[in-house]
Predict the 3D structure of the following.
Amino acid sequence: MSLIWNKFDADRPNEAVIMWIAEQCQRILIDNSINPTDIDAAKMFAANEVKAYESGSNDKLNKAIGIDIFRPHEFGSDLSNDNSLDELQKWLLYKTFDWMKGSELIKIELNKSFPAAGPTNIKGGRVRHSLDNLVTINNRKVAIEIETSGNLDNGFFTLRQAVRGKKANCGVMIVPWMAEKSGRADEGKALGKLDQEFNGSNNMEDGPIYRLAVIRLIDVYRRILAP
């Protein structure tokens, strides 16, 4: 998916992405000789693929096919991080990870692929927090949190402290488009957290935090199964 900045807030989902996923549903069904209008056949096909994925025998559905990048529209005119975000987007599309196993492997691979931009320890109150990654991408220092659990507060706080303390030019929260299990991180939960602080604010001195949602084949198959 192209790197296009859209002006919308957390309570207004990106309809262009929703439509794009629907198009992928149609394409997959046709490629597998299934009539998209045959709802029963489509759901049976998707159900078998998802069941195999959840049992660990269909890893191909972890393949990333798109990235949805969100930033609060308050930062719509700030283009200074675009090249870095574009590079990170390409990296996420190139790599395949098993999101059911959590974020640790993604964290390790990021550190292998991009040079460190400093220590990951972040001071916050009486305790120190640790970023998943603090790396340099296209000459910009990028703080990264990869979220798969349902608790996004710590990740958001750590990103904000990294940017506020000038350890990073921007923060990035990476999440799967759809949650692996009920209550866990997905694009909507992460988007809501990021938008809360900036909604209606004119104070941009701390710098932006972006949300990158990884859209995988499994999301398309689950969309076919959706009511």
Observations:
- Confidence is low (pLDDT under 50) at residues 1-8.
